[in-house]
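Sorry to interrupt, but I need a hand with the structure work. It will help me judge whether the discrete encoding reads sensibly. Write everything out right here, beneath this request:
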Amino acid sequence: IVSSSQVLGPTEKAALGRDERASAVDMETSSLRAWAEPAGVPVLAIRAVLDDVGQRLPPPPSGEDALSLAAYALARPFQLPLMIATGLRARAAMSNLSAFLKELLPRL
């Protein structure tokens, strides 16, 4: 995993992954560290990778309620397979992250 201090688009993410020989790009942890460092707060980043450098994500919906999500899906029927695949990967990633944290947290 390679880190980026900025949010990258799909093309930039793929190029960085290729250049650094990385499977995934972390675009969030550097912002968290920048926020925590001045306060002296330690940061431990544990990541569940949802998308590797070659995978696309659908654009984010404007809301998370059922009506907003339904309108989003209906307006983009051609992206439905991508939305479903992303949802399934997110479910697996959250399951793996939960199992890891269940083992880790009692040991801290």
Q: What stands out?
A: Helices lie at 10-20, 29-36, 66-75, 80-104. The mean pLDDT is 91. Strands lie at 2-3, 25-26. Residues 8 and 101 are 28 Å apart (CA to CA).
